[in-house]
Amino acid sequence: MTLKTLFRKYLFIFCLTVGTVSICISEVLGTPFILISKKLYNKYISFTKTFAGILFVFLVQSFSPTPVTLTYDPELRNLFYLDRNSCLETIASERNIVMANHQLYTDWMYIWWLAYTAKQHGFIYIVLKDSLKWVPILGWGMQLYRFVFLSRKWNKDAATMEREFRFINKVPEPASLLMFPEGTNLVQNTYERSKLYADKAGVAMPKNLMLPRVRGLFYSITQLRDSMNYLYDFTFAFSDHYPKKYAAEAFSLQQLFFEGVRLRRMHVHVRRFRISDIPLEEKLFTKWLYQRWYEKDQLIEDFQKTGSFPGPRRLNTTVRLKSRLEILYLFSVLFTCFAVFFLISLFL
């Protein structure tokens, strides 16, 4: 490992650690709000959640700069635009579910950036595997953020989802639930496992995706359909010629953030479905979801031939904050507390 790589590695770890510790302290400092009002406490936690969105966008911008080309279905043409600094601005419904194919370990960071462009980065709820909630500092913070942790044991997961979705349904402010229906990153062994399932179930296997897991998304939609407006569908692809077959094998977290390996360009295509139009019966929903996944697979297949997704317009931007100074927001609660303690000490 070169000196430059070591420097990048420890600088990244330092930034991540300082940022997450500051956010966790800010979360803990807001605990007394529970005694005043749960509504006030939830608003405060959403406020600190914007810090996490800012932190992760800052880390991508600083350590893994990512050019982006955004395309979308024609009916969404009025929802995306670039400001005078070529930063993406998004107009999204206030309450929605987001699903995406899972290409890289950083996909969720890119989706949080998209939420940031819609000013919804304080209202995002992510479905994650259960083991992540025990990651020191990060996991503790995610638990306070009411992220949904699943163990892939349905009896346990159904109870977890019911509890968390009851909370999301009652939250009066915006809410965005992020799910990856494939369940994990697309790599050789996960693709092969998915193909075995497809063969056993007698359904067609996509060429560039895994089959989506139906039950979790179906349960989410049935539980949230009265309080959610739309299901947004993001399809990710990359311009890079991978040294390996799959993007996740070619671009690990270490390569992207420690070694300075850069993605040539990330392409995102956005579709939107009205949740009230999605089938309520599980067999019909399964057929509906598989059809959407075959369409995504065809989008990626065409992308590999043409180098772009279809759309009325292509927006070229980068994953970035409107201003790097926004990173100072992470410390705003701490600065305020220190100032208050200092003023109190003057009169003691």
Characteristic key phrases:
348 residues, alpha/beta, globular, 1-acylglycerol-3-phosphate acyltransferase
Q: What can you see in these coordinates?
A:
- The chain is of the alpha/beta class and 348 residues long.
- It has one domain (3-346).
- It has 12 helices and 10 strands.
- It starts with a helix and ends with a helix.
Sheet having the most strands: 8 strands, mixed
What integer value in Å does the Rg equal? 21 Å
Please tally the β strands and state the result: 10
Within the largest sheet, what's the order of strands? 6-5-7-4-8-9-1-10
- How large is the count of helical segments? 12
The unreliable regions are none
First and last CA, distance? 54 Å
Range of helix content:
40-55%
- Round the mean pLDDT to the nearest integer and report it: 91
Shape: globular
**Share in β-strands:** 15-25%
Count of the separate structural domains: 1
Helices and strands, in order, run as HHHEEEEHEHEHEHHEHHEHEH
